């Protein structure tokens, strides 16, 4: 509750109160010593809700500044995360495209080159995802052979060509250089009694050879 009074009734100067006058006014009101001048006539005190405009304004202003600062910082952080995310996506896309166009850029294990790209004749590179798709995720229903080297699966490429995919199992894989030498040799061998090499997969730690599919024939696994 606040009490509104006229300054000239209490103040000696009629313009403002000093500290001692504030203390005196509080004492006079508490002890009911103060008497209004005759000009006032009958009077009584009215209590009104007190609305402080001194300290709260500064606090509100400070809170607004803090909130604005936090908002700006969050916005900058969000923009930074978006930029970093877009950059990472672009880098990943660039690596994927480079791998598709030149899968031998990191031919060796651990990203080390074991030599230049294989010199192939007619054979092409397939990604591991392509091999999964054309064999129905290497389904047992697509398996047509097995041996010490690994399993052989029947698959259908996106162009409709039926192929036999020889997938090496763990423990029987060659080194990158040996595998490259093998596919170079196989891609150059063409004979009516030999199964032709369509391509190979050297991706995600997998080694596969993709041959022409011979109905009712066998593909020897060595």
| Count of helical stretches | 5
Strand order of the largest sheet: 1-5-6-4-3-2
CATH class of the domain at 124-212: Alpha Beta
Backbone structural class: alpha+beta
Distance between the termini: 99 Å
What characterizes the major β-sheet? 6 strands, mixed
Helix content: 25-40%
Name of the CATH architecture of the domain at 124-212: 2-Layer Sandwich
Mean pLDDT: 74
**Might you state the CATH topology name of the domain at 124-212?**
Phosphorylase Kinase, domain 1
Kindly report the name of the CATH homologous superfamily of the domain at 124-212: Phosphorylase Kinase, domain 1
β-strand number: 6
Low-confidence stretches: 52-58, 108-114
Helix and strand pattern: HHHEHEEEHEE
Report the β-strand fraction as a percent range. Answer: 15-25%
The geometry reads as rod-shaped
Organism: Ananas comosus var. bracteatus
Keywords: ATP-binding, Glycoprotein, Membrane, Nucleotide-binding, Repeat, Signal, Transmembrane, Transmembrane helix
Protein name: Protein kinase domain-containing protein
Domain Protein kinase: 138-222
């Amino acid at each position: 509750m606040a009490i509104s009074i006229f300054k000239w009734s209490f103040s000696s100067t009629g313009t403002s109160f000093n500290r001692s006058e504030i203390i005196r006014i509080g004492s006079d009101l508490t002890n009911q010593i103060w008497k209004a001048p005759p000009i006032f006539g009958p009077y009584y005190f009215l209590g009104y809700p007190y609305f402080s405009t001194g300290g709260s304004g500064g606090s509100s202003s400070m809170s607004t500044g803090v909130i604005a600062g936090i908002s700006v910082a969050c916005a900058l952080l969000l923009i930074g995360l978006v930029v970093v995310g877009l950059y990472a996506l672009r880098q990943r896309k660039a690596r994927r495209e480079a791998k598709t166009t030149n899968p031998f850029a990191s031919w060796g294990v651990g990203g080390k080159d074991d030599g230049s790209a294989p010199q192939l004749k007619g054979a092409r590179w397939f990604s591991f995802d392509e091999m999964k798709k054309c064999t129905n995720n290497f389904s047992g229903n697509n398996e047509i052979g097995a041996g010490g080297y690994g399993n052989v699966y029947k698959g259908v490429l996106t162009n409709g060509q039926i192929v036999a995919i020889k997938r090496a199992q763990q423990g029987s894989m060659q080194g990158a250089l040996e595998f490259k030498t093998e596919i170079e040799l196989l891609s150059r061998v063409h004979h009516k009694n030999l199964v032709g090499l369509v391509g190979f997969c050297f991706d995600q730690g997998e080694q596969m050879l993709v041959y022409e599919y011979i109905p009712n024939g066998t593909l020897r696994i060595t």
